[in-house]
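Thread title: Can someone regenerate the structure for this chain?

I was given the following input by a collaborator and told the matching structure tokens would be attached. They weren't. Posting the sequence so someone can regenerate them.
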Amino acid sequence: SGTRIDHIGGNNLAPVTTVAGVTGKVGNAAAFVRADGDYLTRGSTFQLGDFAFTLAFWVKLTSIPNAHMALLTQGATTAAGNFNWVVEALANTGQIEATFGDGFAGVVFSSATLVVDVWTLVIIWHDGASLNVQLDNGTIDSVSAILQSTTARGTMSFGATGAGNDPLDGQLDTVILWQRVLSQAERDVIWNGGAG
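Best answer:
Regenerated them for you:
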């Protein structure tokens, strides 16, 4: 519990209510309890737009409720024009939806789904022409997306939106953002780092 330290930069995350620390897939995970509204937050931080990036993290759901769960977000809400990006587990299915850019400029859905009590590696990337998502080193789902430059206007949060909406019921481990596209070989290293 307590502040989560960014091991590369100074983007530390503070808990809103108590976010327990537990043994994760490859490191220490943050455990979020949906009923308690637990989440981690940091002021406006990342600007994602019309450049290459890769976002990777491990997630394990405790449940899949009949409401969306925000895994990672930048902005106060998921309303168009009021966020930079949001990655959610969809209601009832556990499918991943990744939305980037003002006005829903790029939205991609995973064909694979998250499973309760199973660690899943989620990797999302933008290469300048397409937005992609891959679960557990499997099928790559892509959409054409040229994301416009945006300026960070809200809180970066893990486990809920910056306003505490759509809380997560589960765990997140080893969240990493690169300002480039990782190769398949590099994605394989992340997958194998968690012993697949």
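The chain has one helix and 14 strands.
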